[in-house]
Amino acid sequence: MPVGLFRVCLLVITAIVNHPLFFPKENGTVPENTEEIIQKMKEREESLRLEQLRLEQEIADQEATQKVLEKAAVLVEESKEEKVRWDMWTALSMVIFLLIELWRQDFQEGNWQDIGGEEDDMAVLGKAFKGVTLPDKAVLASFYEKRILGTTGDMARMREMVEGFADDLLEALRSVCNRDADMEVEDCMGVGSMYENWRVRKPFVCDLIVPFAPPEPYCFRCQTWCSGDSFPPDEQGYGTIKVCRADEDATGCICDKTKLGEDMLCLLHSQISSTRPSSEMEDLLCFKNTQYLDADQVMKWFQIAVTKAWNRISHKYEFDLSFSLLDSPGALKIKFKSGKSIAFNLTPVVQYENSDVYFISHFPWSSLEADIPSSTHWFLTFAVYERRFIQLVSKTLPANACHVSCLQILSFLHGKQCSLTGPSGLTNYHLKTVLLHLLQARPSQDWAPEKLEARLQDMLKFLEKCLHEKKLYHFFIGNGKVPAELGFPIIFQRAEPLNLFRPFVLRRDIYRKMVDTFHEMLRNMSALINEYTVHIPLAHTNGIRKE
């Protein structure tokens, strides 16, 4: 009860105090202040609403950007996975291709010389050769006698005349050179078709090589692609020639590879001998700032030396001597007063160690010189061994064997075809390489004179096979069956076979021209032979005389 009375009293008192009559007059502006407060609250609410909209827009933009980034990340990840899968398949395909290629090359290189006695394989080869009929034996015999032997009768006299003059010229060259500073020139040697008795195309040109050596106390250190040094694949068949002092180790002293202290001295080399002036090496025909023999420098030196030598002995002869090619140091031409001329090549070479393999500065009458990587790279020529091999095999063949006749006929036909359709990448050296392979593969009795037609077909089929496969291996390099009587260096027999057609793999235009020329020669072969053949009775079956 008291609590209820207390509550009633408190309620009455509160009502009296809050009655409007008890407020002073200055509080009469409350309604107006309330409206301002309400207005400000509305403005504040509007600003908050706008701020909320702005924040919502920013959040939406951020969410959109995040989605774009996440999508881009997914695409990148998918592309990476796709690239990994593609790279994996590409690598796998390349590995399979390389394994197949290596197996094919090993198989072919292991059997590249085993062509003897494979009559069935020879019959399968030569798709373009099918349908081509060679003239009969009588026509071939007449063609050879009338066209080839009739034009090569003066070669022996020409060789004798050129060799005698070359010896006199080189003797004069030695007399005009400084024996203490200039290169030492040795006697010349005849190589090539003129000395192997199979050249048929005019003008007849004698090829002579002239070995030279540096003056004392220097010597040549020869490095080849198969001697363990690192040579790129496009430099196979080449080598370099380093000019060193005779008392230097071939591998070089350690003082050239390490820095000795100022208070240390090499007991083998003094400081004076270890540093050679650049001018001294250039006087030794080396490439600038190197010790490697420069073919261009050798070319200039040889031209100047030959000119001086001719000026010394010109009064003894009744003819003029001149350089027939500006880019060949020894392409010389003898001009007689009657108007006739004789051309010959006198080419400087460097002997490889104690063998008859030589580094040749350039190839006269050939486009191979354009393939030389640099002037310090020298190509190796095996011409002396090639001549010896032909002479060695000829002793085991029947009398009047047809091996030289086959090469002469094929060389003549190829030359005539090139005169009609233009030159091609196929050269007489490729034709001779084919003959060398067949000479080693076939027994001696297969080269009897009456088998000229069959052997000529073998050469054509073998050449077509090589053109189809783009592979014609060098006869000596990588050939373990070279006769021991030749004394051929073992390092080249153990080397990888050298493909003479390798430059044509990347040169499709030259390769296509070479193949087209060969096929055109096959089609025109009978017509060319008949054109230069005198008609003879069918009973004529005389053997073919070898020159």
- Please tell me what the overall shape is: elongated
Would you identify the CATH architecture of the domain at 151-247 and 283-381? 2-Layer Sandwich
CATH class of the domain at 151-247 and 283-381, named: Alpha Beta
C-alpha Rg (nearest Å): 45 Å
Order of helices and strands: HHHHHEEHEEEHHHEEEEEHHHHHH
Ends apart, CA distance between termini: 162 Å
Q: What is the tally of helical segments?
A: 15
Q: Spans of 5+ residues with little confidence (pLDDT < 50)?
A: 22-31, 108-125, 256-260, 268-277, 535-547
- Extended strand count: 10
| Helix-residue proportion | 40-55%
Oligomeric form of this entry?
A: single chain
Largest sheet, in brief, is: 10 strands, mixed
Please give a structural write-up:
- This protein has helices at 2-17, 30-110, 119-124, 137-148, 155-176, 193-196, 271-274, 278-283, 295-313, 383-394, 403-421, 428-441, 452-469, 490-493, 508-531, and strands at 184-185, 189-191, 205-213, 218-224, 238-245, 319-323, 331-336, 341-351, 358-360, 378-381.
- With 547 residues, it is an alpha+beta fold.
- Among the domains are: 120-149 and 396-535, Orthogonal Bundle (Poly(a)-polymerase, middle domain), CATH 1.10.1410.40; 151-247 and 283-381, 2-Layer Sandwich (Beta Polymerase, domain 2), CATH 3.30.460.
- Strand 7 (331-336) and strand 8 (341-351) form a beta hairpin.
- It starts with a helix and ends in a 16-residue tail after the last helix.
